[in-house]
């Protein structure tokens, strides 16, 4: 293992980000039951275990499952309930939705009309300006939550503002951030988005100390790591919030946590978020819909119901590597929110897995071949 | 309500069942269909190899490239037929035929020394030098009564693989 102090993200260190896939996968029979006896032609030609593994992955695999939006249960196709459901649709789209748009518009007007003057007029008094901006962002997020009738239950003590701590949460949608932000103004690390979200990111959210990066830029990794270190040292900075999965997962699973948040030498405060899918699926499938469409979907549903747990802060134990620490925190969050853990790196959505794991299988096969060749 | 699997009619299912010689139940075909639609993201009627490779568990498989050649451009019926050999209801004969096809890339019904070597190379990667592999294969072939230049046909495969129980089953669970 490398020393935790270094910042360099060389390719070898990137590999450490990778999970021990073998610990999770249903191990193929090829490795499990070690065949014995002399090597025969039959053993060389029999590739059935490997074929079965491949076919199993085609039929179902744990990675795709993480990003599958679950289709809603069609409860409404029932003669008695159908008219009721129709009334609901009319109400949701013609009354609820316009009312919510109105709420959101009012929110924006109040927000912008106070944020812009504060931002430009109070240039001299940094402390006061930051306090006001902080509350304004919190208020705007409350308007957002109101615009989908967010029924959010917060459990546990509210986050405090102090140096050397970082909050990590599981990630389902960008609304995670809004829901957490309405209680406490967090500084969040997020992927830079295009469009109006990107505009908000670079103007307003910058003022609460948010840090943006581009997932695909290797250079950004280093810059973000440096910014992170600087940020956690400041006593008056907003608490840092990181979604270490690096991508939205459908709230049934957790993918690997990136270790960045766990090697800052800070206290890690886990936050678990669990959505109730009774009215709407809050998973943002960014491949299928834009964020605007996702928001509209939320705004035309009855309500967004969710639970947020602020869990007990955790520290790196002596002798623990950042990766083990990340796994331990993932355990805590998955357990609290009732999510299943899978061994995949969420970035596999954007890239192919490293051939390392295939090599391990090949090595096993080659070694067993040689071993059996010597048996007589 | 946008539930793609409901688009299969009873006739479709029966047709597919007949095509794969009743190795799958109707429920299994329905769930295979929703999987097919999930992987066929762009609705082109077949699954592009890129989509298969985006399944990490598949792309890490040593034989993924050989299988991709067989999977290329299959429509749903052929896709089900492809998977049918992994059903517990498939016969031994079918399973061995399938394995034979993995070796016989040029589909001429003959498996040569080169063909076996190619698959072995996929299976062992960089962990065995080609020279050593050739030696081992020659030795094992000779012990089994073949020569280095002999050509194996399907019946040879039946003889070699048929007497043991192949573990070639996949759980086609129903959601």
Write a structural description.
The complex is a heterodimer of chains A (376) and B (175). Chain A has 376 residues and is an alpha/beta fold. Chain A has helices spanning 11-16, 29-32, 41-45, 48-59, 62-66, 81-121, 126-147, 175-181, 195-203, 218-233, 291-299, 322-337, 356-374; strands at residues 150-155, 165-169, 187-191, 211-213, 240-242, 253-254, 267-276, 304-310, 340-341. In chain A, the strands form 2 sheets. Chain A has a 7-stranded mixed β-sheet with strand order 1-8-7-2-5-3-4, with helices on both faces. In chain A, strands 6-9 form a two-stranded parallel sheet. In chain A, α9 (195-203) links the parallel β3 (187-191) and β4. The longest helix of chain A is centred in the N-terminal third of the chain and has 41 residues, at 81-121. Chain A is globular. By secondary structure, chain B is mainly alpha-helical. Chain B folds into 2 domains: 9-89, Orthogonal Bundle (Recoverin, domain 1), CATH 1.10.238; 91-164, Recoverin, domain 1 (Orthogonal Bundle). Chain B has helices at 10-19, 26-39, 49-53, 56-59, 64-71, 76-84, 92-103, 113-124, 130-143, 154-162. In chain B, α7 packs across α10 (154-162) and α8 crosses α9. Chain B is globular. Residues 1-5 of chain B have low confidence and may be disordered. The interface between A and B is large, with 50 and 58 residues. Chain A: One of its GO terms (biological process) is triglyceride biosynthetic process. Chain A: This is Phospholipid/glycerol acyltransferase domain-containing protein. Chain A: Keywords: Acyltransferase, Lipid biosynthesis, Lipid metabolism, Membrane, Phospholipid biosynthesis, Phospholipid metabolism, Transferase, Transmembrane, Transmembrane helix.
């Amino acid at each position: 293992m490398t020393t935790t102090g270094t910042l360099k993200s060389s390719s070898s260190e990137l590999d450490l980000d990778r999970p021990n896939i073998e610990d999770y996968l249903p191990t193929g029979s090829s490795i499990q039951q070690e065949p014995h006896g002399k090597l025969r032609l039959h053993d060389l030609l029999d590739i059935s275990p490997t074929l079965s593994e491949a076919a199993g992955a085609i039929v179902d695999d744990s990675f795709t499952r993480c990003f599958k939006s679950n289709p809603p249960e069609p409860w409404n196709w029932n003669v008695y309930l159908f008219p009721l459901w129709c009334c609901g649709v009319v109400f949701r789209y013609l009354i609820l939705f316009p009312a919510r748009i109105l709420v959101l518009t009012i929110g924006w007007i109040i927000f912008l009309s106070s944020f812009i003057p504060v931002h430009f007029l109070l240039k001299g008094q940094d402390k006061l300006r930051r306090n006001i901006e902080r509350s304004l962002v919190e208020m705007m997020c409350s308007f957002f939550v109101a615009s989908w009738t967010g029924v959010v239950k917060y459990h546990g003590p509210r986050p405090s503002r102090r140096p050397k701590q970082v909050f990590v949460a599981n990630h389902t949608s960008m609304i995670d951030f809004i829901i957490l932000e309405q209680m406490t103004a967090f500084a969040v690390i997020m992927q830079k988005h295009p469009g109006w979200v990107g505009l908000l990111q670079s103007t307003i959210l910058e003022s609460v100390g948010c840090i943006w990066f581009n997932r695909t830029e290797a250079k950004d990794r280093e810059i973000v790591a440096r910014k992170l270190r600087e940020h956690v040292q400041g006593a008056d900075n907003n608490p840092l919030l990181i979604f270490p999965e690096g991508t939205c997962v459908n709230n049934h699973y957790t993918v690997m946590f990136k270790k960045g948040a766990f090697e800052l030498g800070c206290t890690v405060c886990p936050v678990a978020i669990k959505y109730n899918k009774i009215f709407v699926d809050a998973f943002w499938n960014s491949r299928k819909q834009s964020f605007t469409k996702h928001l509209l979907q939320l705004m035309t549903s009855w309500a967004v119901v969710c639970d947020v747990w602020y869990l007990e802060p955790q520290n790196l134990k002596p002798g623990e590597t950042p990766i083990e620490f990340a796994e331990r925190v993932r355990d805590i969050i998955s357990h609290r929110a009732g999510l299943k853990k899978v061994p995949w790196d969420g970035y596999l959505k954007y890239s192919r897995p490293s051939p390392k794991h295939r090599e391990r299988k090949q090595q096993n096969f080659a070694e067993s071949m040689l071993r059996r060749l010597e048996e007589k | 309500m946008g539930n793609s699997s409901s688009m299969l009619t009873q006739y479709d299912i029966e047709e597919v069942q007949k095509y794969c010689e009743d190795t799958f139940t109707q429920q299994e075909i329905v769930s295979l269909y929703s999987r097919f639609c999930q992987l066929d993201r762009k609705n082109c009627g077949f699954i592009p190899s890129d989509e298969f490779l985006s399944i990490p568990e598949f792309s890490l498989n040593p034989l993924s490239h050989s299988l991709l050649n067989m999977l290329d451009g299959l429509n749903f019926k052929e896709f089900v037929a492809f998977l049918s050999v992994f059903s517990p209801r498939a016969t031994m004969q079918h399973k061995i035929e399938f394995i034979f096809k993995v070796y016989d890339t040029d589909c001429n019904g003959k498996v040569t020394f080169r063909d076996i070597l190619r698959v072995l190379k996929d299976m062992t990667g960089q962990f065995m030098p080609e020279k050593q592999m050739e030696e081992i294969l020659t030795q094992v072939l000779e012990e089994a009564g073949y020569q280095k230049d002999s050509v194996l046909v399907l019946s040879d495969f039946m003889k070699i693989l048929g007497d043991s129980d192949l573990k070639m089953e996949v759980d086609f669970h129903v959601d």
